[in-house]
Structure formats: structure tokens, C-alpha cells
Amino acid sequence: MGVFEKLMKLDRRWVFLFLVVVCVVTYYIDYDVPILPEDESRKLYDFIDSLPPGDIVFVAIDYDPNSMAELHPMTYAIVEDCWRRDLKVIITALSQNGPGMADQVIRDISDSMTVDRTYNGVEYKGREIANGIDYAFLGYKPYYTLVILGMGQDFRLPFPTDYYGTPIDSLPMMQGVINYDNIACVISLSSGTISDGWISYGQGRFGFPMFFGLTGVMTAQYYPYYGSGQLRGLMGGMLGAAQYESYADNPGRAMDAMKVQLPAHLVIIFFIIMGNIGYFASKSKKFEEVG
Amino acid sequence: MTLVLSVLVIIFDNAWAFYFYTAEGLENSMFRTFFDYVMMPILATMFSLLAFFIASAAYRAFRARNILSSLLLVAALLVMMRFNPWIPGADQVAAASSWLMNVPNLAAQRAIVIGVGLGMVATALKVVLGIERSYMGKG
Predict the structure, then answer these.
(1) A132 in reach of chain B (CB within 8 A)
(2) Predicted pLDDT of residue B37
(3) Other beta carbons within 10 Å of A140
(4) B5: which residues sit within 8 A by CB, 6+ positions away?
(5) CA–CA distance from A83 to each of A119, B68, B96, B131 (Å)?
(6) Beta carbons within 8 Å of A37's beta carbon, 6+ residues apart
(7) CA angle A78, A62, A169 (to 5 degrees)
(8) Cβ-Cβ contacts under 8 Å for A42 (sequence gap 6 or more)
(9) What is the per-residue pLDDT across B23-45, written as a single tens digit (0 to 9) for each?
């Protein structure tokens, strides 16, 4: 068997092993990856940057732990950026395991918010994050289309109390906040069809500024809505999260993970090229043997 | 065995969801520990396996057999290489990739969405007008 035949019949376990070695080695090597900007994600950052302190941003955590590698860094970057700018955040989870994700985000960022930090040359003093003042966590309700439509009338219809059982009317930041008219934008971080619900029943019906954070494989599907202006901005996969961290000057999980993702992509490209070399070489060899 | 496990997963997955209706679940330290240190790593690991299967499948399936598959291969390589700062001409690759996403991809996705919409209207009209053939073949 020639080299090219061997290349064509390479056991897939070698591919797995090579990818594992590259991922592990690049994770432990300390180096920085320059993040190139993109309009789609930049628009979200610019929008958040333009909001005055006190405005309310609605963050929908519509994903489960299986897509946390891509979407969790987005949530961390956005929520911390909002809180550093004194924006208030309403958090919901329309995905089954979303409350666990939201709870982890709130705990972790509340801890890091107690430390003084400087981002993009602006010094932000550390402070305590308080439930009902800086954020309202409304929790999870099933049948997301009904929940999205209900919140368009009044947040209190699907969520009479917050996740912790406190009536929404008794939360200071929810005073006078009735529905989507009273918030600056909705950011849905989603790994499934809930994004379609936000487009059809949320943005399409009520017309609020909408942004998406999606897994890498989903992103291409939502470009028509970005092109039509229904989506003001779009973050795609780990790269989108890393771009947001880069704009916010707050390197975190995503920029760290890009150290692994970029070499892994190069490995896949390498294998595709090797596979094609093997394919063409074996094809020309067969052609020579026949002719 | 698989069947039994599947049934157990379905039962306990629903019970799990029920716990998420209120903070009762997450205020329970055992529940939270299980979620943070068992559920999350398991689900994240399942999804991360995709990377290995994609690498293997790409190696076997992405062959430039004809013009259409060559076009797909070039588009896939451009999108994979976009925003990779180490390759030569990274800015041009990023621009080409953005064009691919914003023009041909957008047009194709829009055509699919419009096609699906028209199909739904046509099916709805057939049902409303009573000319939809039922699943048993009767009108």
C-alpha cells in the first residue's frame, strides 16, 4: 500500500489523537491571540456603550450546559459590561436548564464586581451587586412563545414573582417597568429554536432592539434577520464572545479559549488538505495504471 | 439496558426541570453541587465530542470531487480561516468570509425562509379549503 493509499485510509483515531494533543498543548502554552473585530458583534458593544446609566438591558439565557463553551463566555462578558456601566439587567431563562446557568453567572460576576477594575482606560470601582436593584432574575417558564408574547403585555403575566419568589412589584428596579417598551434592548443567548421565537413573537410583534448571541453552527441561519435590520447585532460562537471581550477590554474565558480553537481549526484545515492531496494522488495513480 | 436508561433520563430530566421552576432547586446545596459539578461537565463534554467527529468527517468527506464540492470546500476553508490572525492576508480572508456570509449565505437562507413560509400558507389553505389529503388517504 502506497503512502497516498495509507493517507486515504488513515484511522480516524489518529485524527482524534492529533486534535487532542494540539488542544491540550495550546491550552497550557501561555500566549495571546489577537482578536480581529467584526461589524456584527461590534454593533452590540456600541449599543451597550451608548446606553446611559440606569437603563435596563434584558438578557435571555436560552441555552443549556451543552453549549456553555460558546455561550457562557458571552453572558459573562455582557452582564459584567452592563453592571460596570451601572446598567440594570433583567435575566430570564427560557431553556430548561437555563436557571442553573443564570445562577452561576450571577454568583461569579457578583464576586468579580467587588474588585476595582480598569477597562478601556476607565476605572470602575468595585461594588456589591444587589438583587432587585442591579438585576431581576425572573427565572424559567416553559412554552417560550407564550412567555415572549406575555412579556410584551406585562412582565408580571408570565412572571408574577421573580425566581426567588419575591413579587416583581416589590423589586425597586422593576417599579414602572411594565413590558418591552421600558427596556433598552433584548439580548438572547440561544442554542436552539428559541431564537426563532424571539424573532417571530418578540421583535416582529413588539419591535424592540434585538441582539443575538448564537453558537457557531447556528449563526449563518440568522443572517437574513441581521440583513433586514430585525437583528441589530449578532455574536457568533466563541469568536463572537472573544470579540466582545476584546471590545470591552475584559479578557476572559472566550479569549482564553481562542488559543485552543484557532490551532484546532488549523489542524482540521491541515487534515482536509492532506485528504485532498491523497485523493488526487491516488486518482492520478489509478488513471496512469488504466491508461 | 439502553431503553431503561432512556426512560430514567426522561423521568429525571422532567423532575430536574420541575426543580428549576423556583429557586428551591438551586438553594439546595446538593442539587446545586450536582448541577455545577456533574450535570454541566457531562453535557459540555457530550457537545465537545462534536469537534472530534467534525475533524474526522471533514477529513473524509471534504474532497474536491467536482465543481460544486470544490466550491463548498473553498467556502468552508474561507469561513474556517476567517479572523485567524496567523494566516497571510488575514484581513482579505476576513473580508471574503464576511462577503460569503452577508451575500450568498444571506440570499440562500432568505430563499429558504420565504420558501418555508409559502409552503406553510399553501398547506394551511389546503387544510382550510378541505382539499388536503388526510394521512389515511381520504379527503
Answers:
(1) no
(2) 87
(3) 24
(4) none
(5) 13, 49, 36, 57
(6) A243, A246, A247
(7) 80
(8) A233, A243, A247
(9) 667 777 777 888 888 888 888 88
- State how far the alpha carbon of A113 is from the alpha carbons of A80, A86, A187, in Å: 8, 11, 21
Q: How many residues does chain B have?
A: 139
**How far does B97 lie from chain A, in Å, by closest CA?**
11
3-class state of residue A171 by DSSP: coil
Q: Residue B98: which of B90, A264, A93, B59 has the closest Cα?
A: B90
Contact A272, A84 (CB under 8 A): no
Place of cell 453549549: A67
Interface test mutation site (partner B, options A272, A274, A279, max chain B beta carbons within 10 A):
A272
Helix, strand, or coil (residue A129): coil
Angle of helix A68-84 relative to helix B40-61, nearest 10 degrees?
Answer: 120
pTM of the predicted model as reported, rounded to 2 decimal places: 0.88
Give the chain A residue whose CA is nearest to the CA of B47: A66
Task: Compute the radius of gyration of chain B from its Cα atoms.
Answer: 24
Q: What 3 state SS string does A54-72 have?
A: CCEEEEEEECCHHHHHHHH
Pairwise CB contact (< 8 Å): A224 & B32: no
User: Is B21 within 8 Å of A140 when comparing Cβ atoms?
Assistant: yes
- Decide if pLDDT at B137 tops 90: no
Cell numbers representing residue B139 in the block? 379527503
Q: List the single best residue of A4, A223, A243, A266 to mutate versus B (max B Cβ within 10 A).
A: A223
Distance CA A240, CA B98 (A): 13
Q: What is the pLDDT of residues A186-222, one digit of tens each?
A: 999 999 889 999 999 999 999 999 999 999 889 999 9
Strand partners, A93: A140
Task: Specify whether the CB–CB gap between A144 and A97 falls below 8 A.
Answer: no
Residue whose C-alpha is closest to residue A232's, from A186, A164, A263 = A186
- The model's pLDDT over A132-168, given as tens digits with 9 standing for 90+, comes to 999 999 999 889 999 999 999 999 999 999 998 899 9
Per-window interface: A 67-86 vs B, CB < 8 A = 67-69
What pLDDT score was predicted for residue B65? 85
Contact residues on chain A for B76, CB-CB shorter than 8 A = 272
Return d(Cα B87, Cα B81) in angstroms, integer. Answer: 8
Contact A36 B43 (CB under 8 A): no
